[in-house]
Amino acid sequence: MTDVPESESTGTGAPTAGAVASPMVEAHGLVKRFGDFVAVDGVDFSIAKGESFGFLGPNGAGKTSTMRMISCISPLSGGTLRVLGMDPAKDGSRIRSRMGLVPQEDSLDLELTVLDNLMIYGRYFDMPKKVIRARAEQLLDFAQLTERANDRVDPLSGGMKRRLTIARALISDPDLLILDEPTTGLDPQARHLLWDRLYRLKQDGVTLVITTHYMDEAEQLCDRLVVMDKGRFAAEGSPRQLIDTYSTKEVVELRFAPGQHEEVAASLTELAERQEVLPDRILLYTDDGDAALAEVARMGHVARATLVRRSTLEDVFLRLTGRSLVD
Amino acid sequence: MTAISDAATPGSPALFGHGEAVASRRYATPMWLRAARYWGYQYKRTWRSSVVTSFLIPVLYLAAMGVALGSLIDKHSHGVDGVTYVAFLAPGLLAGTCMQIGTNDATYPVMGAIKWVRTYFAQLAGPLSVYDVLLGHLAWIAARLAIVTTIYLSVMAIFGVVYSPWAILALPAAVLTGMAFAGPVSAFAATQDKDSSFSTLYRFAIIPMFLFSGTFFPVSQLPTWLEVVAYCLPLYHGVALCRDLTLGQVSWADLGHAAYLTALLGAGYAAGRRTFAKRLVV
Description:
The complex is a heterodimer of chains A (327) and B (282). Chain A is α/β, with parallel strands linked by helices and 327 residues long. Chain A has eleven helices and 13 strands. Chain A has two domains: 8-237, Rossmann fold; 248-310, NusG, N-terminal domain (Alpha-Beta Plaits, 2-Layer Sandwich), CATH 3.30.70.940. Chain A has helices at residues 63-70, 88-96, 114-124, 129-142, 158-169, 188-203, 215-221, 239-246, 261-267, 289-298, 313-321, and strands at residues 25-34, 37-47, 52-56, 78-83, 99-102, 176-180, 207-212, 224-229, 232-237, 250-255, 274-277, 282-286, 305-310. In chain A, strands 5-6-7-3-8-9 form a six-stranded mixed beta sheet, sandwiched between helices. In chain A, a hairpin with a 4-residue loop joins strand 11 (274-277) and strand 12. Mean pLDDT of chain A is 88; it is low at 1-19. Chain B is mostly helical and 282 residues long. Chain B has one domain. In chain B, 74% of the residues lie in helices and 0% in strands. Chain B has ten helices and no strands. Chain B is elongated and about 75 Å long.
């Protein structure tokens, strides 16, 4: 499997962050309640044209509820929301006709063929059959499903179904593509293939809104993201900014015999800017990992395993919420 | 697994922001009709088996009960209410069949569109609203009822039991009968989590109604109290309306029958708007 093609040179539709155009999505004090439970607790955000914006957070953080409000499926419980310059409460249908939605749970018609699924979906947008067919051909090529066009959907792999769902969401050439946990449940190979496709959309200037609980996915795909926890934003910025702000350059991971972690950690407090003691390992946050590791050895601690790595969004999340992203 | 091969070069402008698809998606087909179109598309795949269940079976009934059993009845009691038994039975079976189709199409397909195939969610991801989704599904059921009824009435004509030009109106009457069930039943189906409630519905409502609503014999044959119960059943009104029309015995009472069925459809639709919204919009 080859790497994600990096073709900056084509330069078509590169995201222009500084565009003065009105935002694609703008929310102020957005709230979603289910009875007494507050799923989204007054969040503000703005998503610009051509931007790839991510909601990162664990299950139950309020990501999907936020997405469902943006996609005009779920009414707001409070606050204001403008999508494509319109009000979801009044113009839901018009907004959705310019939007592509990839829900968490597939809603493909398994008994129909791949092509029929695209045809039917295009007809919801009232596109003429001829236009849909031409576009379906391109999209199947994009989703690498051309050879399966006339096969039933049922036996396709999870990754193929996901790609088909994305192709389907693109049938009407939406201004905004919303993806709710696009790669959850897929094997690594299928995920990389999907990322590659989404990366291409990004290059084409399609505005992407993505929820995920995988930080590698957020790092790969998002220009800007918010870390969500318990219905609120814990932080906001580009993946790089978040790491710079909330974590150190490097992280040392140390594994000791079970039961030793607390004791060892107590003696290491001076070594790093910050440390986290997890059940299975100690994390030392420092700008020079090798130096810290040498110091640990000099102090006479013998770790079962050590690792020096760069900080990731996982570390940011741990710092902000005190727990890991994926349990 | 083959390597990722980019048949289309990355960043090719053809797919996105091209405008052709955008320009084409502004046709004025009503939203509910777009939803109904889906069901029509789907039907193309299953129409053979549905023709068997919803059309062939009543035709067999008509032959066996109407003609064979009917000859016995006609010989001994000179027909029913002044007409041959087959002429009496045919419109009753038509109404009963429409009840079954209306109920059937509003139970499992509705649950499937919510839970299994998730069709409604696919529709709601596009420009359709929850009311379009409901109306579209009901419109499709009405269309299917119209198809079945048309064939059925033709078969009745072949059997020689269409007695009057009023029979033309038996088409909308039979459709209305089916819809008087499809409306409330779809509203009910949208509240259900398991399909076991549907067999209960069949066992305790649909099948008894099929037997005791004047379909096979006049309700005057029933004990008085049961006769009164029968008058309240929706299928009784559907049967009476269809029968009056095919036999040409039209009276003002038929307006009452039609009004009853229309009210039931209306109430069902109103309830469906609530239950669909409650289930699909959270």
